[in-house]
Amino acid sequence: MKRKKLGNLENINIAVISQNYFFNEGLINFLHLTFDCRNVIHYDSSFEYIKDESQKKFDFVFIETGSIQKFDLLALLGCDFLRGRVRIIFVGNQHFDLVNDLSDKFSLTGVLAYKDPSITYIKALKILINGEKYISDNINPISSQVPSRDNNSIIKKLTPRELEVLKLLCQGLDAESLAERLCISPRTVVRHKTNILKKTGFSSTLQLVANIVDQPNIKEKLPHPLLW
């Protein structure tokens, strides 16, 4: 069944649920610049969103599944007041077995992958605004994603310090928090990030992290202890 069209995104309310700094900043800036969205609010968890939802009356909810636990997703999807009204858009590579099982029962309208280019997000949002559903071609809800490049070679190219930086980037830490954790300056963090991108061939930190976080064999080779 088609949903009611929302028209331009400029005046609609959007929530972003994620604990990943790079995802939050990238998506919110993208919505501002591409669709002139003014009403975008970030939440660290579904529980924070649920407490605020009755006052804000959101139209779209973006959920970054990589930093959200399954019980957190279930808490959100189980809210009766969300059914049939709020349009839920999942972004990531994790938990799509759960998403696949529940998509027909709740208000899931879109599924996007980390590695989808910005043009895919634009296409998806235009379709969603018109009341249709959108599932990315890069999403396989049952089996794991096939790596887009040889991730094992990434480990071999980086120094021990760069691997430490990469581990913390995958946890969603921003430059200031990462610098504090490693007892280095933010400028040094920026230099390490630049070197990591140059060595691995990725054009952005978001692309790099998206290619790493869903590969258990790579995470095992990063410095311990890990907080995945």
Automatic annotation (TrEMBL):
Biological-process GO terms, alphabetical = regulation of DNA-templated transcription
Annotated signal sequence is: none
Quick check: keyword Transcription in the entry? yes
Q: Which UniProt keywords apply?
A: DNA-binding, Transcription, Transcription regulation
Pfam families cross-referenced by the UniProt entry:
GerE (PF00196)
The record's annotation in InterPro entries points to: Sig_transdc_resp-reg_C-effctor, Tscrpt_reg_LuxR_C, WH-like_DNA-bd_sf
List the GO molecular function terms: DNA binding
The HTH luxR-type domain sits at: 151-216
Task: Give the highest taxon in the source lineage.
Answer: Bacteria
Does the keyword Transcription regulation feature in the UniProt annotation? Answer: yes
Q: What name does the UniProt record give this protein? A: HTH luxR-type domain-containing protein
Q: Which organism is it from?
A: Marinilabilia rubra
